[in-house]
Amino acid sequence: MVTSYLRNQKSKIVQLNTLASSFPIKIIGNDKILSIYRTTVTNYNYFMTKKLIILTTVYLLSAAVHAASFYSFNYSIKEQDTFKKILTRFSKPGTVISSKSKGVQRTLKMNPKVKNWNKLEAGNKIKIYFEKTVFNMKEYKAYKKTLKANKTEKVKEKVNVAKKADKKTQSKIKGSVHYMTSLGVLSQTSVQNNLSSEYSQYSPYSLGLSGSYRPSKKSYFFSSDLYISAINNGASNTGGDIEGVSDYGIATYMHKDVKKYSFTYFGGLEYESFHSFSTNHYAASNEVVFDKTLALYATLGVSKDFKISNVPLFTKLTFSKSIATSTTPTMASSGTLESYSGFKTNLYLSYNINEKWYIHTMLNLLKMSGSDELSISKYGVGFGYNFY
């Protein structure tokens, strides 16, 4: 309102100045009258300018006094916050919260983006105004102290994340040893000998050694695994005794991180031995023995860290296709054996107890075709130790 008045007065002064400067002297015919008129206009201009300055000063002082009668600050809305709850928190004890109070009215006016004051959205910020007479300065200082502490904590967290990321980009060699025990079933069918056999496998131990190397500031790394397993205490439907055997394996992979989706894919080669029931020898002598097969596989897989009920887990899934196999008969009566071909798949899961110790489990399935149709399934559990 004051601003509008000042604008109108200024417009009048400009009009009078224009009139005085262009006044036709010859119409008046009297220089003295013209001089008196111009003096009058000049005095009027001086008076109006002075009045304009005084009114402007009064307006600014009034605005400053009005603003100084409030405390204001930015507030970040939290879960379960309500407008009334926020006002009560920062008001002095015993203050009656009213929608007609000047602080509430000013808060509503200065936050036009808030559409529904009855349902504030967590994470948004609003500017709150309180009249000085009701403002709880003690609660406000506690709030600011909490904000500062949270900010410091966030900075520390960012620094720690940066340090961890930096460590990941450094050249790093990791190594671990692990133990696992497993139960399994071998099923085998010989069309040639019209014979089907099945026996349970029990591995009291599998001992392994794993290692990996990540070059500095690279998104790829290399790993290798080596293991040896003892297999015995089986029960066969052929009725014969089963001797204990041992299998071994070695693998090497190259891994590539996919940071956008937080997983790693990898590929490599695996070389392992496994034993199968000698159906030819059993058909000839009714004696239970095993033939040993060596197999080379091409392997592809994916791995990922994830959480279940806030429990961090690591999982790995692989699929391997045989590219070369060789079977050695235990007895001469086994005859010539056709090489196997097929695939295997493995699902692995681990949980870190701490930086050094972890527990793990795996499910393995192998299917091969050759002289016989062969399938081996295993389930194992165990633990491991990271030594660097």
Strand order of the largest sheet: 3-4-5-6-7-8-9-10-11-12
Q: Helical percent range?
A: 25-40%
Class computed from helices, strands and strand pairing: alpha+beta
Number of strands: 12
Radius of gyration: 44 Å
Mean pLDDT: 82
Main sheet attributes: strand count, strand direction, barrel closure: 10 strands, antiparallel, barrel
Distance between the termini: 77 Å
Beta-strand percent range? 35-45%
Write the element-wise H/E pattern from the N-terminal end onward.
HHHEHHEHEEEEEHEEEEE
Q: Which parts are unreliable, with pLDDT below 50 for 5 consecutive residues or more?
A: 23-29, 63-68
Shape: rod-shaped
Enumerate how many helices there are, as a single number.
7
Characteristic terms for this protein:
single chain, two-stranded antiparallel sheet, 7 helices, 12 strands, rod-shaped
Walk me through this protein's architecture.
- The chain is built from 7 helices and 12 strands.
- It has 388 residues and is an alpha+beta fold.
- The strands form 2 sheets. It has a 10-stranded antiparallel β-barrel with strand order 3-4-5-6-7-8-9-10-11-12. It has a two-stranded antiparallel ribbon with strand order 1-2.
- α1 runs antiparallel to α3.
- The radius of gyration is 44 Å and the shape is rod-shaped.
- The two termini are 77 Å apart.
- About 3% of the residues have low confidence.
